[in-house]
Design goal:
four-stranded mixed β-sheet, single chain, globular, alpha+beta
Length: 301
């Protein structure tokens, strides 16, 4: 049976636009507040803008470096390249670069600012543990992220949230106002406290906006994989395998890669963890339920 791409996901596009619009408005108000408070953040805003440009144009290299991953050519990983090339043609995508990360955490991710500048990376643990059809389903998931361009949106949105998070965690300490009750600093201390409270508000709103988008984008990528491979059950099997292995990974190994959770096909955390409630991904059970429904729909078609 010929399999065709399911078309543009208009709901995902709307969510991406809505989230980026709200985040942009939120941060413009934030910068205006900082300026009015007289904190002198113009220099910081310029630096943050420069860092954003660097992250946007070099995000793929930054992400690969953080994972200790390296690009591989077709001679080094012929089967992996062949799978990605075949799936890319089916999804009407330029073939992305291919990378492998030497990690005991079984996972995969895609990064890059667009289809012409993308990288798909898998870990050595994933390659060892998945059967070829399961691996193909995972790669289909990652290529859907590239096709939908949601990786770039998450990268930019995550940067904004990181700026607010930095201020929340460091502002009061860096200015040395904690515990200082001198009259000379009362006014300035209140100003810094106000900035800290606003930073916390901005970070909190950003946190939930990003998760509203990131959870839906995982559902969309699962659907794309199901259409490309024609086998939703293979992706379901891969997710169950990855999740099961994750439960046995030492905490130190999970901590090494936890900063990549927003990009991974499954977050590097134990399912029993309370942090799963705040995860960037929907629960495994909900994803499996959606894949079962997709399989039933495809069988009836």
């Amino acid at each position: 049976m010929e399999r065709r791409w399911y078309g543009k996901d208009w709901e995902l596009s709307a969510r991406m636009f809505f989230v980026m619009f709200l985040l942009a408005a939120l941060y413009l108000l934030f910068i205006a507040f900082l300026w009015k408070a007289g904190v002198g953040f113009l220099g910081m805003a310029l630096i943050a803008g420069a860092l954003l440009v660097v992250q946007f144009f070099f995000s793929d290299k930054i992400v690969l470096w953080s994972m200790g991953a390296r690009e591989v050519d077709p001679h080094e990983a012929p089967e992996l390249h062949a799978m990605i090339e075949r799936l890319s043609q089916m999804a009407d995508l330029p073939k992305p670069k291919v990378a492998i990360a030497d990690s005991e955490v079984p996972n995969a991710f895609a990064t890059g600012r667009g289809p012409k500048n993308s990288v798909v990376c898998v870990t050595t643990s994933l390659l060892r543990r998945l059967d070829p059809p399961e691996l193909e389903a995972v790669l289909g998931h990652e290529l859907t992220h590239v096709r939908n361009r949601d990786v770039m949106v998450i990268t930019v949105a995550g940067f904004f949230a990181a700026v607010a998070s930095f201020l929340v965690h460091n502002l009061l300490f860096s200015f040395g106002y904690l515990g200082d009750t001198s009259n000379d600093r009362d006014g300035e201390g209140m100003g810094i406290m106000a900035v800290w409270l606003v930073s916390m508000l901005v970070w909190g709103i950003s946190f939930f906006l990003i998760r509203a988008l990131s959870r839906y984008r995982e559902y969309a990528a699962d659907r794309g994989s199901a259409v490309l491979t024609g086998a939703p059950s293979q992706l379901a099997s891969a997710l169950v395998k990855i999740s099961g292995v994750m439960e046995r990974i030492p905490d130190r190994d999970l901590r090494k890669v936890e900063g990549m959770n927003a990009f991974f096909i499954l977050p590097a955390m134990r399912r029993s963890s309370l942090m799963e409630l705040l995860s960037t991904h929907p629960s495994l059970e909900k994803r499996l339920e959606q894949l079962k429904k997709l399989e039933r729909d495809m069988e009836r078609a």
